[in-house]
Write a structure and sequence with these properties.
Blueprint (H helix, E strand, L loop, with lengths): L2 H20 L6 H29 L6 H22 L6 H32 L2 H24 L1
Helix pairs in contact: 1-2, 1-4, 1-5, 2-3, 2-5, 3-4
Bound molecules: fe (ii) ion (2 copies).
The site of one fe (ii) ion has 6 residues, from helix 1, helix 2 and helix 4.
């Protein structure tokens, strides 16, 4: 599977988890479980994506701006995740902050798919996209294990 399909698959998981969390309440088992799943997915995805995709995109002069922008957004999302992790899930502010994160996540994955992937498709060959897909397949499970252990 090429890199774009791998990333899109993860993005759909993220969209789905964000939507599900919006329908949870308070410090419930469901919210805890879904939040942990989303947090692990977001962090592992961003790391594997930077390694397998953006590190290569950065090497093309036409890809530098997109790479910088995406990495900055990953960083911002990590900060927002940390804030949420330190907030009481029962507090009303938790959902307010979560909605801001969810909004940012959706904007980010939409932008990657609608703007960055088409640009990358002009830079990379089909074989390169497959090789990046393989690199992502290797890296993602390792990043998930790392996040689970954290
Ligand atoms: Fe990303
Ligand atoms: Fe992504």
């Amino acid at each position: 599977m090429n890199i774009y399909d791998h990333l899109k698959q993860d993005h759909d998981t993220q969209r789905d988890l964000c939507e599900q969390i919006k329908h949870t309440r308070g410090d419930s088992e469901k919210r805890n479980e879904l939040w942990r799943a989303l947090r692990i997915e977001l962090e592992a995805h961003a790391s594997a994506e930077e390694q397998a995709f953006y590190a290569n995109l950065m090497q093309a002069p036409e890809g530098t701006d997109e790479t910088r922008h995406a990495v900055e957004e990953h960083q911002k999302m990590t900060e927002m995740i940390e804030v949420l992790d330190n907030l009481d899930m029962d507090a009303e502010i938790w959902m307010k902050k979560f909605e801001k994160l969810a909004h940012r996540v959706i904007h980010h994955v939409d932008e990657e798919e609608a703007e960055f992937f088409p640009k990358a498709k002009k830079i990379f060959s089909i074989d390169e996209a497959l090789a990046m897909g393989e690199a992502f397949e290797d890296r993602k499970p390792a990043e998930v294990r790392k996040q689970k252990a954290a």
